[in-house]
Amino acid sequence: MFNRRKPAHRDSLRTVAEQIQNTIGGTFVFNPCGLPAGSDPPSMYLPVAQSRKEVLNKLDIEAKKQFVADLKQRLDRSKVVILTDYKGLDVGTVTELRRKLREAQVEFQVIKNTMLRRASEGTPVEPIIEHFKGPSAIAVSYDDPVTVAKILSDFAKANDKLEIKMGVMGGKLMDAGMIKSLATLPSREVLLATVLSTMNAVPTSLVRALSDVPRRMLNVLQAIKDQKEQVAA
């Protein structure tokens, strides 16, 4: 008697089947010999005749559908999306740009144009669809449009191979010039600080004005009294 070694591809197929089950649901019965499943009541059946390529394709299609659905949700709730051409940037430079954007709560991702087009349909980002051409990487901000424009503009000045192509904010297209202009505006934090300081100043001025009313009223009354006394005299 000797132990018969199990072919490696069987474990590989079993792993793929489990991945498909986790991705799209259903019960897969791994049957490397292609024999009937017997008493097992499978809802889906994976015979050995089904090639690994077919299984991987099925898994790949479902994964792409899920990715597009998730991307659509992100684009739908974005405040601004800026499209860039990263061609010519090395991996280290792209990593540095992604780090700077991530620190500002901005997502930066390289995505195939076909997926970008599908995910953008029916979202405020849809006007930019026709510009998804060539190497595309998008910066997505859910909060402050100025910050992402500022980071990309400053980075492009230091790295001329990064091209800011187009952007969309509130369903309106922005060309590269408009994005650079947006980058010159005060950031959200600066604007909030200005508003708060203004709000704090208003009550102080109002209190001073109100506190001065009785004094001015007394002066008016005193003037009226003096005038009457002069007339009486």
TrEMBL record:
One of its GO terms (cellular component) is ribosome. CDD domains: Ribosomal_L10. One of its GO terms (biological process) is translation. InterPro entries: Ribosomal_uL10, Ribosomal_uL10-like_sf, Ribosomal_uL10_bac, Ribosomal_uL10_bac_type. It holds the Pfam family Ribosomal_L10. Gene3D superfamilies: 3.30.70.1730, 6.10.250.290. Keywords: Ribonucleoprotein, Ribosomal protein, RNA-binding, rRNA-binding. The keyword Ion transport does not apply. The keyword Membrane does not apply. GO terms for molecular function: large ribosomal subunit rRNA binding. It comes from the Bacteria. Coiled coil: none annotated. Belongs to the universal ribosomal protein uL10 family. Part of the ribosomal stalk of the 50S ribosomal subunit. The N-terminus interacts with L11 and the large rRNA to form the base of the stalk. The C-terminus forms an elongated spine to which L12 dimers bind in a sequential fashion forming a multimeric L10(L12)X complex. Forms part of the ribosomal stalk, playing a central role in the interaction of the ribosome with GTP-bound translation factors. This is Large ribosomal subunit protein uL10. It comes from Desulfatitalea alkaliphila.
